[in-house]
Amino acid sequence: MHPAFPFRVKKRQLWLSAECCIFWEDQRSLILSDLHFGKTGHFRKSGIAVPQSVYKDDLQRLVMQIQYFQPRQLIIVGDMFHSHGNREVDLFKRWRSDFSGLDVHLIKGNHDILHDAYYSECGITVNEETMILDGLCFIHDIEHLRNKKIENDSTPFVNYCFSGHKHPGIRINGAGKQSICLPCFYFGEEYAVIPAFSRFTGIAIIKPAHNEHVFAIAEKKIIRLQ
Fold it and tell me: How far is CA 172 from the centre of its chain?
């Protein structure tokens, strides 16, 4: 596995992994988004032959990141699960028992529609809209903050946000008319967007401004583009 890429945001030390997650060193937290566990099973139930190996590969990648970074907690910025329960969701419960000492915090995404009892049985702390930790706000869809004021007299100070949902990607143009689209980390002035952890997702092309930071993921390496 290639070494993580160091990057600082608001005086916080981050490590960007080519496996589409971020290790927040100060809080020993692994930040992920859009795992979509159970998605392949959902497609198979609909008659679409998606191999279960896709789901197992995602779980194994998560194990490797936990073993590498040794976090004390996971912060999952939405869409941990894809839809209603199925066999793959049940398999996650077994997986969770192997990491019972690891705290798991979920900020609910639009696909997280499982019953509350399931999250409780799996030892997952659920945050309905946002989670605020050490001045950072975690929210699934950054667009939901446009009409919502985070900082007021009753909430902690926030100076940066992390979000998911968009599955960000960047288009890189080559010679002639050749181009390639790659998943990426996006860091703007006020918020970041994390790439989807699941390999079984599409990407949405972003167009960053000149003062924003983008890190593409190619061949399991982090490539800083700007």
Answer: 23
The CA-atom distances, in angstroms, between 64 and each of 61, 70, 81 are: 5, 10, 20
90, pLDDT greater than 60:
yes
Cβ-contact 137, 130 below 8 angstroms: yes
Q: Answer whether 106's CB lies under 8 Å from 125's CB.
A: yes
pLDDT at residue 88 greater than cutoff 90: no
Reduced to 3 states (helix: H, G, I; strand: E, B; else coil), residue 8 is strand
Amino acid at site 13: Q
20-56: pLDDT as tens digits: 999 999 999 999 999 888 655 444 454 444 445 667 7
Residue 173's identity, in one-letter code, is: N
Residue 78's identity, in one-letter code, is: G
**Overall size of the chain counted in residues:** 226
What crossing angle do the helices spanning 87-97 and 53-69 adopt, rounded to 10°?
20
Q: What is the pTM of this model?
A: 0.87
Q: Domain 5-224 is of which CATH architecture?
A: 4-Layer Sandwich (3.60)
Give me the half-sphere count of Cα atoms (radius 13 Å) on the Cβ side of residue 81: 26
Contact in structure between 226 and 186 (CB atoms under 8 Å): no
What whole-number distance in Å separates Cα of residue 57 and Cα of residue 59? Answer: 5
Burial 181-207 (b: 16+ CB within 10 A, else e): ebbbbbbbeebbbbbbbbebbebeebe
The two three-digit tokens of residue 203, written as one number: 């990407």
End-to-end CA distance of the chain: 24
